[in-house]
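Translate structure to sequence.
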């Protein structure tokens, strides 16, 4: 077959040469926005990954306020593949930012773009999105006290679990929505690149995989540290193939990897109030 308008060249011996009526895919919807770049997975209605870049200067500005933002379906994604607001309605899961709104306070427009559902995944709320995960996001921001440039890639994972009965490994995850269209990840990853600010300088890399479940705030973040290769193997993505080995440092050896536990109770109350209002 040939993808030529108005013509078709038959294959030899019935062997197909290509799709006549359109390339099936898969297609990744890439969005380049003020505060992030994202790749969207049409099958799971989750991002593959969302990348951001934060600096002391970007975090110092306070021109954006999340009270002025609202969750939005992404019009850049074809309607039949979009995650919808109603998919999350009474699902029991938060619309969990991959790039946090707090990382985009430097511009209201930039913050607003973090509220597209292409930057969201279903996350357990209490004990995770509103607690441990929020402290982890704060840890990433605090890295700018040590490093002048921090790049972060965040996304969902769907990891296998061994069945205790037959001793085999299975990937199992919940779907939400009507019809069920949005996958609930089993885990989330962050791959962090903390740069020393010099051209061709050292880059401290940290990779972390956290379960989409309540986590005790006393648990050290280092318990979730993994090799970058482990995230690549699980996600099918590559994160540092253009970074020479001689420039790489291990983040948690280069600086202290520890969370500062903050009281988010007032934020949680405001979130719950806003969530019920939008339900």
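Result:
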């Amino acid at each position: 077959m040939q993808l030529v308008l108005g013509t078709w060249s038959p294959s030899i011996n019935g062997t197909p040469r290509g799709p006549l009526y359109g390339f099936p895919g898969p297609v990744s919807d890439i969005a380049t926005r003020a505060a992030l770049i994202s790749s969207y997975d049409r099958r799971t209605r989750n991002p593959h990954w969302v990348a951001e870049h934060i600096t002391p200067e970007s975090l110092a500005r306070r021109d954006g306020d999340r009270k002025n933002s609202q969750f939005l379906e992404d019009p850049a994604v074809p309607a039949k593949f979009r995650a919808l607001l109603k998919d999350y309605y009474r699902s029991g899961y938060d619309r969990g930012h991959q790039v946090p709104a707090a990382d985009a306070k430097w511009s209201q427009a930039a913050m607003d773009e973090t509220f597209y559902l292409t930057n969201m995944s279903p996350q357990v709320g209490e004990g995770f999105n509103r607690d441990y995960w929020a402290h982890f996001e704060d840890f990433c921001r605090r890295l700018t006290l040590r490093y002048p440039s921090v790049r972060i890639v965040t996304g969902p994972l769907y990891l296998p679990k061994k069945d205790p009965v037959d001793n085999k490994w299975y990937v199992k995850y919940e779907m939400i929505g009507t019809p069920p269209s949005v996958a609930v990840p089993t885990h989330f990853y962050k791959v962090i690149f903390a740069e020393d600010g010099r051209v061709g300088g050292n880059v401290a890399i940290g990779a972390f995989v956290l379960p989409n479940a309540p986590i005790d705030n006393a648990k050290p973040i280092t318990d979730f540290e993994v090799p970058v290769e482990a995230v690549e193997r699980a996600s099918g993505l590559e994160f540092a193939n253009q970074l020479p080995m001689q420039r790489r440092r291990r983040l948690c050896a280069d600086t202290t990897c520890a969370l500062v536990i903050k009281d988010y109770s007032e934020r949680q109350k405001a979130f719950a109030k806003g969530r019920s209002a939008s339900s």
